[in-house]
């Protein structure tokens, strides 16, 4: 198949995303103000708690079986590699552009987390429906594409909300307006504490003001000392290394917030996998003859709202990105190069290496999706995450505007090249 035909096949799904994004942008302009700031925040909450988990759950329950899980075992590793490589490249961007501390989580998240949800589930099945697609029978291709894209969406959701969510949370500025005094009461720093001009770090009440960062560092040093040393009979003794490691592990486990790890999308993915894999649940909920099929149908109807809503929100959030484009230019260029050039190129080496060692299921459509996972723009969920924490919203909008504008071209070109590469690999295997 010649390059031009592959280009047309790759272009059509990207155009669909662009059209829906453009509608979201129009709805957000001041003249209409349908997707204003309040509406966007409310929709983001709906996506986080309702639309995303139901879409992940229903897609996995319908398309993933135990056999599929065994065949597609490499996909979780492939997505993990996109996050690891993206994080390393993100650290390089931070080093070169000297990003401010409170934006470092956003930069790392955008470099590591690609749009593994609504773009693959739009692009990959749509490629199968194009006349002259390189992946064989339309019906078989579409069914497999939906299964692969659903698993990609579910795994991507777990990685994004477990990793990128916590990155933004950790780097978000923590502002505390209250300080505890000796009698246990609370006073407001801004209104009640006056700084002594001769000693800026001490208030007129004699209370030393300590920043949240200094306080947390002091507590960490104390805990580190307590882990490594023990006081017995007035003497300081070093704790054996085995006990030190155990104490450090206990401290780490105490800091883990399970509520953060098990986000609604993660729970939806777990429920969907259980329904799809366990035959008893599958017979009960999935299929025309299932006794409780109305439950699954209802979940599917709610979940289908996720893709258009998230894509509309991308377009609506781009409005804010137009104003700060020049100011954040070095940062934007760095993230755009990572997501649109560096990662897709590295992905070719990763997937070709996996094919060479026989780690990947031979289906060419599956290989195409694994390659595509490296070439996607930042996850739409990054906009939701920044709005949930109220940190870096403007910068995130600028990044989304720039990367998605470039992705309209880069995803099309990389998709074309990936299809050509998959066909070439298939010919090599048949020789």
From TrEMBL:
Location(s), subcellular: Endoplasmic reticulum membrane
Keywords linked to the UniProt accession: Auxin signaling pathway, Endoplasmic reticulum, Membrane, Transmembrane, Transmembrane helix, Transport
Biological processes per GO annotation: auxin-activated signaling pathway; endoplasmic reticulum to cytosol auxin transport
Membrane topology type: Multi-pass membrane protein
GO cellular component: endoplasmic reticulum membrane
InterPro entries per record: Mem_transp_PIN-like, PILS1/3/4/5/7
Family affiliation: Belongs to the auxin efflux carrier (TC 2.A.69.2) family.
Protein name per its UniProtKB record: Protein PIN-LIKES 3
Species name: Psophocarpus tetragonolobus (Winged bean)
């Amino acid at each position: 198949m010649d390059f031009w035909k592959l280009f047309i096949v790759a272009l059509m799904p990207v155009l669909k995303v662009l059209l829906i994004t453009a509608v979201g942008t129009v709805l957000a302009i001041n003249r209409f103000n349908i997707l204003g700031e309040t509406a966007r925040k409310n929709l983001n909450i709906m996506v986080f708690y309702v639309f995303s988990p139901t879409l992940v759950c229903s897609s996995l329950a319908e398309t993933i079986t135990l056999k599929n899980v065994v065949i597609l075992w490499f996909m979780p590793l492939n997505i993990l590699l996109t996050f690891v490589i993206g994080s390393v490249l993100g650290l390089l961007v931070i080093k070169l552009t000297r990003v401010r501390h409170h934006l470092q989580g956003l930069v790392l998240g955008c470099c590591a987390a690609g749009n593994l949800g609504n773009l693959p589930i739009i692009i990959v099945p749509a490629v199968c429906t194009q006349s002259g697609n390189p992946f064989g029978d339309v019906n078989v291709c579409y069914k497999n594409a939906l299964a692969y894209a659903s698993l990609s969406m579910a795994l991507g959701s777990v990685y994004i909300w477990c990793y990128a969510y916590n990155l933004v949370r950790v780097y978000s500025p923590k502002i505390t307006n209250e300080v505890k005094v000796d009698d246990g009461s609370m006073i407001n720093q801004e209104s009640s504490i006056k700084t002594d001009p001769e000693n800026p770090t001490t208030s007129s009440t004699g209370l030393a003001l300590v920043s949240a960062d200094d306080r947390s560092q002091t507590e960490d040093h104390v805990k580190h000392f307590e882990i490594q040393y023990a006081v017995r009979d007035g003497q300081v003794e070093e704790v054996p290394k085995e006990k030190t490691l155990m104490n450090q592990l206990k401290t780490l486990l105490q800091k883990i917030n399970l509520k953060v790890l098990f986000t609604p999308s993660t729970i939806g993915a777990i429920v969907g996998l259980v329904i799809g894999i366990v035959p008893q649940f599958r017979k009960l909920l999935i299929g025309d003859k299932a006794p409780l099929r109305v439950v699954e149908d209802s979940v599917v109807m709610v979940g289908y709202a996720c893709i258009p809503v998230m894509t509309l929100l991308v377009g609506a959030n781009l409005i804010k990105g137009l104003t700060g484009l020049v100011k954040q230019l070095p940062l934007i260029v760095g993230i755009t190069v990572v997501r649109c050039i560096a990662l897709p190129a590295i992905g070719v080496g990763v997937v070709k290496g996996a094919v060479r060692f026989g780690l990947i299921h031979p289906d060419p459509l599956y290989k195409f999706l694994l390659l595509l996972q490296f070439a996607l723009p930042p996850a739409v969920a990054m906009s939701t995450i920044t709005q949930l924490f109220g940190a870096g919203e403007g910068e995130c909008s600028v990044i989304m505007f720039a990367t998605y504008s470039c992705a309209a071209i880069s995803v099309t070109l990389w998709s074309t090249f990936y299809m050509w590469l998959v066909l070439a690999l298939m010919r090599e295997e048949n020789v």
